[in-house]
UniProtKB/TrEMBL annotation:
GO terms for molecular function: catalytic activity; iron-sulfur cluster binding. SUPFAM superfamilies: Radical SAM enzymes (SSF102114). InterPro entries: rSAM, rSAM_sf. The lineage of its organism: Bacteria, Thermotogati, Synergistota, Synergistia, Synergistales. This is Elp3/MiaA/NifB-like radical SAM core domain-containing protein. It comes from the Bacteria.
Amino acid sequence: MTILRVFPRATSFTPVPTEEDRHVFIGDPPLDCFIPEDVSEIHVSVSFSWDIPEGERLAKAWEAKRIAPVHLGGPAISGYPSGDEFIPGRYLRHGVTITSRGCPNHCWFCMVPRISPGGLRELEIKPGNIVQDDNLLACSEQHVRAVFKMLESQAKVILSGGLEAARLKLWHMPLFEAAKVKEAFFAYDRPEEYDALVYASYVLRSSSWYRPGKARCYILVGFSGDSCEKAEKRCIDALRLGFYPFAMFYRDQEGRQVKDVEWRRFMHTWCRPAAIAATAKRLGIGSK
């Protein structure tokens, strides 16, 4: 069965149309001459809740072409079925892999429990150099070791899913070293996770793997009760612990963000590598 995949928007992880794969489209259907003839189904895949209206519109637009049955789905609409498998290159570009879905935590701000109900599920490991699991370190030791064994054959390995700092262990570090992990992204979503970040910093710095810039950190900002001052303190704290921060502004389940001028200035500073480096230099935060 040949599936034509449609996406509301292009992101860094969206599949890219190639000569080998001409069944990827962003947005509305093009002229008929650009649509492959061997299409069995059309899947409109929506990853984020704020793209649902656009996904619904696109489904109608592609249905009007009368090419093949159109199915509207994706994480934001139907979640992930309990028996699903990850197919490289189908809904994420080649190189990105998912070896597990779900998370044992139930954080109030996170959409993972909604799109992956039933808790953590370990999947068959498919090759890829960018690991986008919801909570890789929550998996069994056997699974984690198998994932890193696969990564040893990959180049420019990036752990981009947001590793849970509290679950990092000393035995993980030889795996980081053997896989030559280029970058590992941790998550600092709540102020009360600071102690876990301190602990993770100690574990990382105890390893020969650690170098400035290799340990990175997503920092959730802009949620109810947060302020630019509080958020900046968390970013600076992460810098001092040896993590390169990347601020992520909170969205509610409808995708809404409340950004005033002050928050926009904040994001301009804490989302741009050059600005972050300048801030670190200004504060005298060294590279050790």
